[in-house]
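tool_call: predict_structure(chain=1)
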Amino acid sequence: MMGEMNFSYNLGISSDIFTLATFLPIWADQVRLLHDIGKTGWWLLLALIPLIGTIILFFWMIRKGTDGSNAYGANQLA
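tool_result:
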């Protein structure tokens, strides 16, 4: 029809390969950022709470890490 626009894209297998190739490194980096502020990687499950969990994780991940060492080893920022 005249007023309908369909913007669905089917990227297929290349999109699936990209997702699988980048999931683990992104996840590991997020755990490292949480360790830098002294929190365990299990806090990533907070992202399962819609909107609020994502906002909390976002602000935690942009914070400066702890000075010196914490329970997860020496902070590279110190």
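agent: The longest strand covers residues 69-70. Proceeding to next step.
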